[in-house]
Amino acid sequence: FIHKDHINLAAFFPRLLTDLLSDTHSVSREACILQAFVIYSYATNENTILMLMAFDRYVAISKPLQYNNIMTPRILSVLIAISWIYPMLCIGIAGILNARLTMCGNKLWKVYCHNWEIVKLSCANTIVNNVFGFFIVTTTVIMPLSFILYSYVKILIICRKSSLDFRRKAYQTCIPHIVILLNFSVALFCEVTLSRIATLELPIGLSIILSLEFLIVPPILNPLVYGLNFSEIRKKIQWIIKACKQL
C-alpha cells in the first residue's frame, strides 16, 4: 500500500526537481494550491493518526483485558476513516477559500507551496481564511496534541503504580511513538513559527533547512524508529555491524 509519507514526498520532490532543472522557477496557481493541499493533508493526518496511536496505547495499558472489546476492527476502521477524511475535508475547504482570493503578489518565500504564504499574497479581505485557518489548527493540531498529552500522563500514572515488568513492557510499547511524536512536533513547530511570525529574522539558508525538516525528516525517521522496534531487524543490524568490524 501507499504510505502517507510517500504521498507527502511525491507532492514535494517532483516540483523541487523541476525547479532545479529549470531556469524559470514558476508554478501555476492551480498546481501550487494542489501541492499545498497534499502536503497539509499529510501534516494534519499525521497528527490525527498520532492521536489514535496514543489512544490505542492508553486502552492497551489501562484496560488490557477489555482491549479487544473496545478496539474492534469496526471501531478501528471508523476511526482511521475519520482521521483521513476530516483533515482532507478541512484542507480542501481552505484550498477553495484560497483559490477565491485575488492575488496581488507572485513570490513565495518557500521551496514549496504553503497555504498561509498564498494567503499573504492576496490584497483582498482574508478574515475568513484566517478564522478558518485557526479552526483547522485548533481541531487538527491543538486538540490532538492535548489528547496525546493527556493519554501519556494517564499512562505514566498507571505505570508508577504497576510492577517493574509491567513498566518495562509499557515503555517498550510507547517509546517509538513518543520519538515519532517529538520529532513531528518539533518539525511542525518550526513550520508554524517560520510561517506565522513575520518579524523572525533568520538567514535564508537556515529558514530553508527548518522548513524542509518538516517535509523530509519525519518520513525518513519514521521507518527507522518502527523498524528498530522489531527484534529481527535489530539482530540483522547487529550482525552487519559485527561483520563490518571484522573486515
UniProtKB/TrEMBL annotation:
<dbReference type="GO" id="GO:0005549">
    <property type="term" value="F:odorant binding"/>
</dbReference>
<feature type="transmembrane region" description="Helical">
    <location>
        <begin position="174"/>
        <end position="198"/>
    </location>
</feature>
<dbReference type="GO" id="GO:0005886">
    <property type="term" value="C:plasma membrane"/>
</dbReference>
<dbReference type="InterPro" id="IPR052921">
    <property type="entry name" value="GPCR1_Superfamily_Member"/>
</dbReference>
<protein>
    <submittedName>
        <fullName>Putative gustatory receptor clone PTE03</fullName>
    </submittedName>
</protein>
<keyword id="KW-0297">G-protein coupled receptor</keyword>
<feature type="transmembrane region" description="Helical">
    <location>
        <begin position="204"/>
        <end position="228"/>
    </location>
</feature>
<dbReference type="InterPro" id="IPR017452">
    <property type="entry name" value="GPCR_Rhodpsn_7TM"/>
</dbReference>
<keyword id="KW-1015">Disulfide bond</keyword>
<keyword id="KW-0812">Transmembrane</keyword>
<dbReference type="InterPro" id="IPR000276">
    <property type="entry name" value="GPCR_Rhodpsn"/>
</dbReference>
<keyword id="KW-0675">Receptor</keyword>
<dbReference type="GO" id="GO:0004984">
    <property type="term" value="F:olfactory receptor activity"/>
</dbReference>
<feature type="domain" description="G-protein coupled receptors family 1 profile">
    <location>
        <begin position="1"/>
        <end position="226"/>
    </location>
</feature>
<dbReference type="InterPro" id="IPR000725">
    <property type="entry name" value="Olfact_rcpt"/>
</dbReference>
<keyword id="KW-0552">Olfaction</keyword>
<dbReference type="GO" id="GO:0004930">
    <property type="term" value="F:G protein-coupled receptor activity"/>
</dbReference>
<keyword id="KW-0472">Membrane</keyword>
<keyword id="KW-0807">Transducer</keyword>
<keyword id="KW-0716">Sensory transduction</keyword>
<feature type="transmembrane region" description="Helical">
    <location>
        <begin position="75"/>
        <end position="97"/>
    </location>
</feature>
<dbReference type="Pfam" id="PF13853">
    <property type="entry name" value="7tm_4"/>
</dbReference>
<keyword id="KW-1133">Transmembrane helix</keyword>
<keyword id="KW-0325">Glycoprotein</keyword>
<keyword id="KW-1003">Cell membrane</keyword>
<feature type="transmembrane region" description="Helical">
    <location>
        <begin position="131"/>
        <end position="153"/>
    </location>
</feature>
